[in-house]
Amino acid sequence: MKTAAEYLQNHVFEARRPRRELQPVVAYEAAVQAIDQALADAEKYKYLLMRALRRHADETAPAPRPAVSAAASFFADDTPVLPLYPTPERLAA
């Protein structure tokens, strides 16, 4: 990632204030352009970082286990399961 000085590197010129030495100066338009470029780069880096984090999370995620309810482990395997409501075939009979 660039530093703030690197964004302004091409836009800096030197100007002399009355009775003083030369000082670095940046035009307002150049500063706005540098800020826009920095924000665009930040969005790009944010996108790349989030993509890398998602990819890493997918690689390190454990394999999904089948869902088991607490009631299913309470009953034995040979316990019959009966419907609560009669089916239409049973009502017709």
Task: Explain the layout of strands and helices.
Elements: H1 4-8, E1 12-16, E2 22-26, H2 28-60, H3 70-74, H4 88-92
Antiparallel strand pairs: 1-2
What's the gyration radius in Å? Answer: 34 Å
Strand residues, percent: 5-15%
- Cα distance, first to last residue? 77 Å
- The average pLDDT value, as a whole number, equals 78
Low-confidence stretches: none
Based on Cα principal axes, name the global outline: rod-shaped
By DSSP, the count of extended strands is 2
Largest sheet: 2 strands, antiparallel
Q: Helical region count?
A: 4
Structural class: mainly alpha
* Helix and strand sequence: HEEHHH
The proportion of residues forming helix, as a percent range, comes to 40-55%
The spatial strand order of the largest sheet comes to 1-2
Please characterize this protein's 3D structure.
- By secondary structure, this protein is mainly alpha-helical.
- It has a domain at 1-61.
- It is built from four helices and two strands.
- It has a two-stranded antiparallel ribbon.
- The longest helix has 33 residues, at 28-60.
- The relative contact order is 0.08.
- The mean pLDDT is 78.
In short:
This protein is mostly helical and 93 residues long. Helix content is 52%, strand content 11%.
Give the tags.
93 residues, mainly alpha, two-stranded antiparallel ribbon, 4 helices, 2 strands, 11% strand, rod-shaped
